[in-house]
Amino acid sequence: MEHVTFPPLSRLAICGGTHGNEMSGVYMVREMQKQKEDLAGSVSIITVLSNPRSVEACKRYIDQDLNRCFTDALLSAPITDSSPFELRRAQELNNQLGPKGSEEAVDLLCDLHNTTSNMGMCLIFYSIDPVTLHIYKYIQSKMTTPVRAIQLSIPHSEAYSLESVGKRGFAVEVGPQPNSVVRADIFNMVKEAVDLTKEWLERFNSGVTFEGGEVEAYAPVKIVDYPRDPATNEITAAIHPQLQDSDFMLLQPGDPTFLSFSGETVKHEGEALYPFFVNECAYYEKKIAFHLGKKITLTFPSISVKKD
Amino acid sequence: MEHVTFPPLSRLAICGGTHGNEMSGVYMVREMQKQKEDLAGSVSIITVLSNPRSVEACKRYIDQDLNRCFTDALLSAPITDSSPFELRRAQELNNQLGPKGSEEAVDLLCDLHNTTSNMGMCLIFYSIDPVTLHIYKYIQSKMTTPVRAIQLSIPHSEAYSLESVGKRGFAVEVGPQPNSVVRADIFNMVKEAVDLTKEWLERFNSGVTFEGGEVEAYAPVKIVDYPRDPATNEITAAIHPQLQDSDFMLLQPGDPTFLSFSGETVKHEGEALYPFFVNECAYYEKKIAFHLGKKITLTFPSISVKKD
């Protein structure tokens, strides 16, 4: 069976407030800074409030969505006086935690997010890097609530979110939680995932061998927008009560998806797929009522730290 | 037993979007306008999007909270170029639906709100006017989910919210729903309450006698703020998981109220009271983690329409 070794994973970045109104990450990062949690055994920890101006304003962003600014093209775009705040901030973060794709980048970047969708604890990552998959498996095996993952198939140069700046990374997406609100149950789930990530890195660096295996994840297939009034572009229906809060529950052809404000039901057409980000607040403006994806299986080799 | 008669209740105002990011009322008012629902038997219905600029921006308010602008003092304040938008809008609404305290005011004003708190269907009113109490009792008897009410003891001149502009009125406060999100289950509860209100008014005007009786309600006693860092004023704890989502469940001395981000529990001190507006998003800035109130019983006489 395949076995892979990696150098020690000594630099971990924990980021929160990439969206300024997703409060778990904001309070998690502030608490870690207050507790001066900058070392966990062999791992040095960098904590970052990614978008301090949007945190201050308690808004998702000031000029544009920071978490869409980390493509190679945007990270190398010239900065002028009229550049959006978030573009400048993305380049600062890339200098601090990357540069993206370089040997100087942090070994692992965890970016803490919330969603209004009932997604529970969900990791989102691009790569199928063995370290990331092992950490996902580890968190899943230790937490008592379901832990799921979404894998985005996007080339590294076009990867747009903050975690792509690290050598590897993932977003921790936890819900349901309203924007601008902090719930203790959601905060505690985020804290547990962060603590388990630190624990795994310490164990890895100390020489533990983690056996190979496989994990399930979801791969996006398409997005579905709300029914809208063609004249005004206003939505004319809400997510149907049967789909609301049913993230990751298989949606079959004929299952209800929307209930219009005048009482008509819209049904799912096409193949059976898994919905997620169902009724996420920030996606109204992106014209996404929910994502649909398929279930995939990811395999990973046995790994251990490379000895000198 | 006491019996009271009233002239026909022929003018009903349904208002939504008083807070621009509380979506049930926004979509309810738009749908009623689309369906041209301006008449229900003997009742003429005025539908109003109270704060169109904040609805457009999908924010609670532009300059200041509109639903604190309806005191006699603010409604008669001189308007200048530098007046907050909401002060001007409050006076417009007072002209359209009031004037407050006058014979020209609408007979009943229902203002549709949402909360991030788990308050279910809750009416909020100042007066213990028999018509309001009868409608509350009627909605409570017809809906399958719990219907509660909060009664505010504030003199009419100092009553600050929109429903005080009608001859009588109440706010319909429904949750939990995140700001800027519409949930079909919550929308349907609001629609049911509006439909039952119209139905009651029609029946009243048609000559039905409604028997006297009593209803329970909650009266605010005090507010509790989050624990805060004295240096930064930032909150240092979230609502405890045991109190979160437990609105209207009696809070006993010693019951947990907060869980700090470092893991310490804060407990309730003082008398047993009923919490509500627990973890309401908009109240972080008002320094309110939750309200505490006592249960009261309100009695009302038998009523019928005054015959010519």
Q: Any overview of this molecule?
A:
- 2 copies of one chain form a homodimer.
- Chain A is α/β, with parallel strands linked by helices.
- Chain A has 2 domains: 3-216 and 298-305, Aminopeptidase; 222-293, Single Sheet (N-terminal domain of TfIIb).
- The first copy, chain A, is 23% helix and 28% strand.
- Chain A is built from 6 helices and 15 strands.
- Chain A has helices at residues 23-34, 52-57, 72-75, 85-97, 130-142, 184-205; strands spanning 3-6, 11-16, 39-40, 43-49, 108-114, 120-125, 147-151, 169-175, 213-224, 237-239, 256-260, 265-267, 274-276, 290-300, 302-305.
- In chain A, the strands form 4 sheets. Chain A has a 7-stranded mixed β-sheet with strand order 3-4-2-5-8-6-7. Chain A has a 3-stranded antiparallel β-sheet with strand order 9-14-13, with helices on one face. A 3-stranded antiparallel β-sheet of chain A has the order 10-11-12, with no helix packed on it.
- The longest helix of chain A is centred in the middle third of the chain and has 22 residues, at 184-205.
